UniProtKB/TrEMBL annotation:
One of its GO terms (biological process) is siderophore-iron import into cell. It holds the Pfam family FecCD. The lineage of its organism: Bacteria, Pseudomonadati, Bacteroidota, Flavobacteriia, Flavobacteriales. It comes from Profundicola chukchiensis. This is Iron ABC transporter permease. The chain crosses the membrane at residues 12-35, 56-76, 88-108, 120-141, 147-168, 180-211, 239-267, 279-301, 307-329. InterPro entries: ABC_BtuC-like, ABC_transptr_permease_BtuC. It comes from the Bacteria. Keywords: Cell membrane, Membrane, Transmembrane, Transmembrane helix, Transport. One of its GO terms (cellular component) is plasma membrane.
Amino acid sequence: MTNWLVQDKRFFLLLLLMLIVLGLSLVLGSSSYTLMDYFNLSENESLKRIVFQHRLPRTITALLTGIALPLSGWVLQEFFRNPLAGPSILGVTSSAGLGVAIVIVLGSSLGFGSFIFEPGLLIIGALAGALLAMLLLISIAKQLSSTNAMIIVGFMIATIAGAFIEILQYFSSAKELKSYVLWGFGSLTGLSIKHLIYYAVFVLVGVFFIVKNIPSLIRMQLGELYAQTMGVNLRSLRIQLIIASSILAGVATALVGPIAFIGLAVPHICRMYLKTSNFYQLFAYNMVVGVILMTGFGLLAELFPGGALPINVITALFGAPIVLSIVFLNKNQIS
């Protein structure tokens, strides 16, 4: 299980790079403070507020998102055995977004009032939508032999979720519409300590379910019959992976927005770079690479000339070429 960790010097270099990027996220921003100012942080109340009230929450949010979305995508790709499987492609993100839209747009009508943006409500809405999408995918996938057909089903789920979102937007007030549009841009900023605690707890639960089931996933690679002979309970495995992927994609979507492509691109990058079937190694690399990229994208969005960009713009510009590369590099395997 851990032999690769002792031998893989690249992983420790990536860990170092991750720490550097996380550190840069704490010291870089739109303000004009110099590096020397940080050595006197305790005496500079203005800089202290910027670091602890804005940059530290942004960095923690990027770290948690960089763990949640790549692991959610990796589990889906391994479970469906398809490199194009990912929360955004299979409609999981869109369905989670529908759950959030119901909470935001219908919140006032249902009497939630000022509690619409309570993290618990947003997370419940997103998890319900993500779980529904995953259950639909699993039930339909049993009837299909083609992975291409499964991708089309996921796209249709996303389309239907998008249609319901547009209906909600059409009948919403200007204030509700603006709230949902701003949420849809995606952002790594603005989360309170309460939000971050919710976020961390749900990510830990999702990671726990994945780590617990890695041995079963390894046996699944040799076929379901072999896995069953080795004592794998396929029904239990399927349920736990649905829960893990839904939790990770749902909580990230609820609190950060519908971040595109990270759940698809990062597992592909790790698999292409490592060229290994060691699931423990892939698990660790997905987390570290995900954190590096999400934190880096957060910095790019923050430091963009002329003002901060929505994080979704950055991830889409990065992710779309990766999706195209997946299609072309796997054109003989995706069928």
